[in-house]
Write a structure and sequence with these properties.
- Chain A: InterPro entries: PhaG_MnhG_YufB.
- Chain A: This is Membrane bound hydrogenase, mbhc subunit.
- Chain A: It comes from hydrocarbon metagenome.
- Chain A: Pfam families: PhaG_MnhG_YufB.
- Chain A: Keywords: Membrane, Transmembrane, Transmembrane helix.
- The complex is a heterodimer of chains A (118) and B (175).
- Chain A is mainly α and 118 residues long.
- Chain A has one domain.
- Chain A is built from four helices and no strands.
- The longest helix of chain A has 34 residues.
- Chain A is elongated, with a radius of gyration of 19 Å.
- Chain B is mostly helical.
- Chain B folds into two domains: 54 residues, no CATH class; 114 residues, no CATH class.
- Helices cover 55% and strands 9% of the residues of chain B.
- Chain B has a three-stranded antiparallel sheet.
- The two termini of chain B are 23 Å apart.
- Classes of the chains: A mainly alpha (118), B mainly alpha (175).
- At the A-B interface, α1, α2, α3 and α4 of A face α3, β1, α4 and β2 of B.
Chain lengths: 118, 175
């Protein structure tokens, strides 16, 4: 009962943040600010979606003792860790490539990178 | 010999994680354990040269892994939660003041630079764009620069983060 409630709360938080990420991609002015919306909110939202799966798997494991639920939980944790690392690294690579190919940040008040790497 | 043992151990732990819940010996079945041991030895034979390429064994210390876990669950998760509320606020209102600043964390190892760059990318309105490979300076795109910070030649780490000094934690983990 309590577990079902926690599960639903985690799912709701995850979906809300993923939705905000999508809205951010549509609203922000340039590639860098769009990457902000895309990497942070989607990683955070997906961590909560993963936590919901882990809670579900753990509760069923302690309820039934069936090994397949622990497999589900552990694999979800590994997928979330891999996602967090690759998401950050991918965002870094896209941002660096964009800046080197001449995409300057829109509405910027300061750009220290353009001084050393024009 | 040391690279071989470390690679085999690491591969075996990953195999155990992926096959947890397969049987009755604690959580694993006998055939899975035997197959895991065999495959980790094969993996170690092939890839020991890549895995320990720089002959740097300080990450073999379990205390560092414990610190890394504490860092991820504690300061990092709090900063990340705050980051998301902050970015959500900016998505809804559209109030942004972007720019690229330079920070000088003073880290020396590649692993430390990697951890800090990823931490910065996943926390409050900041995104690592470029790392200077000689001085290890970071160029960080911020979505909302506080007034005054754009005048400084190198920004302070506390202008970028909100509560915790990440470089101090990273130095404890990776250096």
């Amino acid at each position: 009962m309590v577990v079902d409630l926690i599960f639903l709360i985690f799912l709701a938080i995850g979906l809300i943040f993923n939705t905000l990420g999508v809205i951010g991609i549509l609203r922000f002015p340039d590639v860098f600010t769009r990457l902000h919306a895309e990497t942070k909110t989607t990683t955070f939202g997906t961590i909560f979606l993963g936590l919901a799966v882990v809670v579900y798997g753990a509760s069923h494991f302690f309820g039934t003792g069936d090994g397949q639920y622990i497999v589900l939980s552990v694999h979800t944790i590994i997928a979330v860790i891999a996602l967090a690392f690759t998401n950050a690294t991918g965002a870094h690579a896209i941002a660096r490539a964009a800046h080197r190919s001449g995409q300057k940040p829109a509405e910027a008040v300061v750009d220290r990178l353009a001084e050393v790497n024009p | 010999m040391i690279p071989f043992i470390l690679t085999a151990l690491f591969a075996f732990i990953i195999y155990l994680l992926l096959t947890a819940g397969s049987g009755e010996l604690v959580l694993w079945s006998g055939p899975e354990l035997a197959m895991g041991a065999f495959l980790s030895l094969v993996t170690a034979t092939i890839s020991r040269g890549f895995f320990c390429a720089n002959r740097d064994y300080r990450m073999a210390n379990p205390v560092r892994w414990g610190t890394l876990a504490a860092y991820l669950i504690g300061p990092f998760f709090i900063e990340m939660a705050k980051a998301n509320v902050d970015v959500a606020y900016r998505v809804i209102t559209g109030r942004i003041r972007p720019g690229i600043v330079r920070i000088r964390p003073g880290l020396k190892t590649d692993l430390g630079v990697l951890l800090l760059a990823n931490s910065i990318t996943l926390t409050p309105g900041t995104l690592t764009v470029h790392v200077d490979e000689e001085t290890n300076d970071f160029f960080v795109h911020m979505i909302n620069i506080k007034p005054g910070v754009e005048q400084k030649e190198t920004a302070d780490i506390m202008d970028v983060e909100a509560f915790f000094s990440f470089p101090r934690w990273i130095r404890r983990i990776a250096e």
